[in-house]
What we know:
Oligomer: single chain
Mean pLDDT: 91
Distance between the termini: 49 Å
Amino acid sequence: MKGAECEMSDMISPEKEVVPFMSKISPRGSVEVWMGEIETMMRRSVRHETHKGIDAYPQMKRGDFVLTHAAMVVLAVTQHFWTLEVEASLNESGAAGVASYYEKMLGQLKELSVLVRQPLSKLQSKTLSALIVMEVHARDVIEKLVKAKVSKTTDFEWISQLRYYWEEKQTDLGPTHLLVRMVQCTFPYGYEYLGASSRLVVTPLTDRCYMT
């Protein structure tokens, strides 16, 4: 193959999910060089799709967003907005705000339970399945915060959770990035493309593993 026939333009997962590269890559020269270029382009492209998802989420119905974005983007973006909304509830109304947000989460889970019973592709079903696992855990976290009467964003019961933030942090991938925080630790989101992979049930033991 020559020319355009050799160009790499997309990432395709085993589930047939397609995520486009920001620009095409031609595998020329040493394999060590162009494999490194593919890895960099993967991370740039996933970051780009995540950024687009963060911009799109507030403008779309939640169900439409879930069904029209890559699974990784859906999980990362919904976790980001979950973090923002919980902290907004705490800052505005303290413990009462968290209790009110818990009711909102129950409504969101009910919407997902309706959506999952609609005619869906296999890819959409896998995305929804993974999202529901994460949303159920998020609901359990909020229930725990309500019982503990957490009222501030600095309370340990909240900062000990995995929280996702989109912040300015200039790197070779771009000017803003998804950062994951737990207690005093901050980790950059890796943007490693995983496709529409399944998620295991998240338990209190899983949370402890994250912390250690």
